[in-house]
Design a protein that fits this description.
By secondary structure, this protein is of the alpha/beta class. Helix content is about 20%, strand content about 30%. The N and C termini lie far apart (about 35 Å). The relative contact order is 0.22.
Length: about 160
């Protein structure tokens, strides 16, 4: 059974019941370059548990779709294609001990630092000491920007086009 949760003035969606919530010191939403680099750095600074949630089936964000050289020079001191850069960042974050969960979407808040998450393992709640939003170039729909009307046929967001 699920029901609404009220935390302060915010009313959120249903909470998962019957399961013990997971917890992490830091949850990062988004496994693009910013999220993966933040995860690696936090682990290197001694943060015990860093969980990265990514809605796509692969980590790496927009660079996964950019098959040209030019990535990695500043931060990794090597020249890579976008897909190579994405794989390298994901590997470095995982090697540092970050838990990266793919095909996992944050669907809502269950408190100030509690997330409702849906993924391959089902629906769950994850409590965190801190939440980092690293959603990068994800575009907001027109209604979220308070712009009326529909997008014409054949006009796509960057994410739709690249996928």
């Amino acid at each position: 059974m699920t029901g609404p949760v009220v935390t302060g003035p915010v009313v959120t969606g249903p909470v998962v019941t019957g399961a013990v919530p997971e917890s992490a010191d830091v949850v990062i939403i988004g496994a693009g370059p910013a999220g993966l680099t933040a995860a690696r750095c936090l682990r290197s600074l001694g943060v015990p548990s860093v969980l990265v949630l990514e809605r796509e089936a692969q980590a790496g964000g927009i660079p996964r779709h950019s098959d040209h050289l030019g990535y990695g020079l500043r931060d990794l001191r090597t020249l890579l294609t976008g897909p190579g850069y994405a794989r390298r960042l994901a590997g470095l974050a995982a090697d540092a001990g970050a838990d990266i969960r793919l095909s996992t979407m944050v669907t809502g808040w269950a408190g100030d630092r509690s997330l409702l998450v849906t993924g391959p393992g089902g629906r769950r709640r994850i409590d965190a000491r801190a939440v980092v939003l690293a959603t990068g170039a994800r575009e907001r729909p027109r209604p979220a920007r308070l712009v009326p009307g529909d997008r014409p046929d054949g006009v796509f967001t960057t994410g739709q086009l690249q996928n």
